[in-house]
Amino acid sequence: MRDIEDSSARRRIGFCVAREKMKNAVRLQKTIHGREKFLFLGNEYELQIVKPQRPALKFDGAFTLGETAQKRGGGIHPLVREQALQIMTERVNHYSTLHGFAPRQVKVNSAKTRWGSCTSTGTVNFTWRLVMAPLEVIDYVVLHELAHLKIKNHSPRFWKLVESLCPEFKRHRKWLRGMGGLSL
Ligand SMILES: [Zn+2]
Predict the structure, then answer these.
(1) 72 C-alpha to ligand 1 centroid (Å)
(2) What CATH number matches the domain at 7-26+77-181, 3.90.1010.10, 3.30.2010.10, 1.20.1050.10, 3.40.50.1820?
(3) Is the pLDDT of residue 182 over 70?
């Protein structure tokens, strides 16, 4: 635990913050001219409501969602959340193996004001909303949180570590701040 530099931060749970706070809760789905669109891994897709199907959400060039799932109320959010957990877990595992990080757990939450966080017990959290971002931006947030397993603050030393893991991180931060210039 020698690397924990900020003892006041250590006392808090969920001290880290991917600093790129969302200005507003970003919207996953929007309706344009009566058509449902949503953003997934940096691309905008059409969402067609179709007859009940299994799994309820499928992708084949466009996304289709079974109307039963749609009517249940949650729309695509619970399904996207499942996707998010899979994607985040895979990216965390990949980079942990590559760089020797040892997170204890990966969780996906519904945070509206932060993209990611890291707890003093080694859990890395991400908002499911991150699946809207391009993969390289997701990877930056993943690496940012993993870096907090070693340095639990936002000191220059921390940013140096982030830069060594993700040289393009400044560009990705910009995307997160502006949601890539997308009007959502
Ligand atoms: Zn941070």
Answers:
(1) 36
(2) 3.30.2010.10
(3) no
